[in-house]
Write a sequence for this structure.
């Protein structure tokens, strides 16, 4: 079945550092790909998405490009802030059953 | 988008009891799902709530333990039956408005079983 493999943390960075979280997937057909974020004590929010190959999702300075050739959807941010401290989940929505499958999650801590 | 309200937001329950979680959406949605997030873990799909018919359960989840109702396109309930401490988790309702876009999540219901 469809699955997502996500770089596990925890990841600790200094403010203004570059962040990348790797995500690769296995799926039949043409899935949609997402990054969700869970801030401390809060619910799950959509960060960005891409629904077809070569699409780039972006939001709040974060970017991820849907790479079909490498089955990847890596998350990047050029300069992180303390407020970016959260758990980040890569997720895939299959083209056949429409369910959302999540990666293990990566805890990111940004220090001032 | 969709706004999802879940009740209760949290509860402490005794072993052997059952609890029903409600999910109310502010608009009609075609797809509704129930997820579980165990402490420090990722989200695992429990089942797809089907309007007017029995839910579709994922491997490892059964109807006797997690009965689900979905009487209409805006409301669903998940019951956690005969609870044990291993059921202590956050249970999340999720909805989708189309087949390729994102799913929207409620704030979750945090259950602690003693």
């Amino acid at each position: 079945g469809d699955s997502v493999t996500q770089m596990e943390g925890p990841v600790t960075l200094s403010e203004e550092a570059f962040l990348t979280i790797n995500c690769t997937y296995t799926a039949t057909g043409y899935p949609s790909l997402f990054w969700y974020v869970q801030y401390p004590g809060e619910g799950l929010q959509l960060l960005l998405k891409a629904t077809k190959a070569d699409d780039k999702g972006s939001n709040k300075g974060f970017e991820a490009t849907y790479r079909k050739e490498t089955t990847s959807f890596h998350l990047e941010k050029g300069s992180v802030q303390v407020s970016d401290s959260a758990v980040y989940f890569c997720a895939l929505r299959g083209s056949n059953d429409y369910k959302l499958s999540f990666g293990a999650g990566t805890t990111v801590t940004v220090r001032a | 988008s969709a706004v999802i309200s879940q009740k209760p937001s949290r509860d402490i329950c005794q072993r052997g009891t059952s609890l029903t979680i409600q999910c109310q959406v502010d608009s009609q949605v075609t797809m509704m799902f129930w997820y579980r997030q165990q402490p420090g873990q990722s989200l695992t799909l429990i089942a797809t709530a089907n309007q007017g018919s029995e839910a579709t359960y994922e491997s490892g989840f059964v109807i006797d333990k997690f009965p689900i109702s979905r009487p209409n396109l805006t409301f669903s309930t998940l019951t956690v039956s005969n609870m044990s401490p291993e059921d202590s988790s956050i249970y999340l309702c999720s909805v989708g408005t189309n087949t390729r876009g994102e799913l929207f999540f409620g704030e979750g219901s945090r259950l602690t079983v003693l």
Notes: Chain B has a mean pLDDT of 94. The CA atoms of residues 4 and 25 of chain B lie 5 Å apart. DSSP finds no helices and eleven strands in chain B.
